[in-house]
Amino acid sequence: MADIRRAVRESLGDLSEGQLVLVALSGGADSLALAAATAFEAPRAGLRAGAVIIDHGLQEGSDEVAQRAAEQATGLGLDPVIVRRIDVGEQGGPEAAARQARYAAFMSVRKETGAAAILLGHTLDDQAETVLLGLARGSGAESLWGMHTVIGPMRRPMLQIRRDQTHQSCVDQGIEPWNDPHNSDDRYTRVRIRQRVLPMLDEELGGGVALALTRTADQLREDAEALAHFAQEQIGDLVEHAEAGLSLEAEALRANPPALRQRIIRLAVQSEFHVSLTRQQTLEVSRLVTDWHGQGPLHLPGLQVRREGKRIFFTAA
């Protein structure tokens, strides 16, 4: 309980007196422990604390679960307590669709209430599952960063807290959490990782796998932030704006290590054309720098890339 309170206190440390924070409350042990800690810490920091409860309508009796969570939030002293029912589409699968609809609802409630932050109950174990999923999908270094502690108004105070700590915190405070049946439904990939893969890795590798995965995510994020900083510093010197696009100096790009060169290319394209290049597309552009032998232009979604002399030109398609 003390560890969770400390994590919340640190997360709220930069907010101003009188501001409102909302806990995203499902009624499960993680979010309930977070709600209790926030109800304790926020008034001591001069902040107001409330809760937002999203009823996805995906299970029978979901309205009753939402109402019970609202009553628990009120009992903890949170105010306002807002219950919002949402319609979950099917785009990207049920998990992705529910997440997208939930976050849209969070942003809507934040706008209505003027809340400075919304606190999410993800734990170190959730972080480890996210990193392992990214590793399995081979989506590149950015997918291995895991979840950010702060991204916009969303904050995750408990990314260094274990799931068993949140359960114990609820026991210690006499709070009874709701057990979401989806959390034990092995049709979901994340549930299989939680119940089968991580326990098996712990058993075979001697434990500590979740901690190792989250340490890896932290280190990768630090490295990526450094690369982003260096790319941003260089891009002003390398870029020249041209009609319907921009150009980059090929030899200056070539002088950079591949990781930085490719990040500069992606950043330039994203900034100018609002297009996210895949790794393969980025490598094709990079070959115009490192393996130039007169090849013709590249036709990528939304833009054309060609080399003329000492510059690489990016123009809108």
Automatic annotation (TrEMBL):
CDD domains: TilS_N. Residues 21-195 form the tRNA(Ile)-lysidine/2-thiocytidine synthase N-terminal domain. The keyword ATP-binding applies. Gene3D superfamilies: 1.20.59.20, HUPs. Keywords: ATP-binding, Cytoplasm, Ligase, Nucleotide-binding, tRNA processing. One of its GO terms (biological process) is tRNA modification. It comes from the Bacteria. It catalyses: cytidine(34) in tRNA(Ile2) + L-lysine + ATP = lysidine(34) in tRNA(Ile2) + AMP + diphosphate + H(+). It is found in: Cytoplasm. Its main location: cytoplasm. One of its GO terms (cellular component) is cytoplasm. It is an enzyme of class 6 (ligase). Its EC number is 6.3.4.19. The keyword Transcription regulation does not apply. It holds the Pfam family ATP_bind_3. One of its GO terms (molecular function) is ATP binding. Residues 248-312 form the tRNA(Ile)-lysidine synthase substrate-binding domain. InterPro entries: Rossmann-like_a/b/a_fold (IPR014729), TilS/TtcA_N (IPR011063), tRNA_Ile_lys_synt (IPR012094), tRNA_Ile_lys_synt_N (IPR012795), tRNA_Ile_lys_synt_subst-bd (IPR015262). ATP binds at residues 26-31. Ligates lysine onto the cytidine present at position 34 of the AUA codon-specific tRNA(Ile) that contains the anticodon CAU, in an ATP-dependent manner. Cytidine is converted to lysidine, thus changing the amino acid specificity of the tRNA from methionine to isoleucine. Belongs to the tRNA(Ile)-lysidine synthase family. The N-terminal region contains the highly conserved SGGXDS motif, predicted to be a P-loop motif involved in ATP binding. This is tRNA(Ile)-lysidine synthase. The gene is tilS.
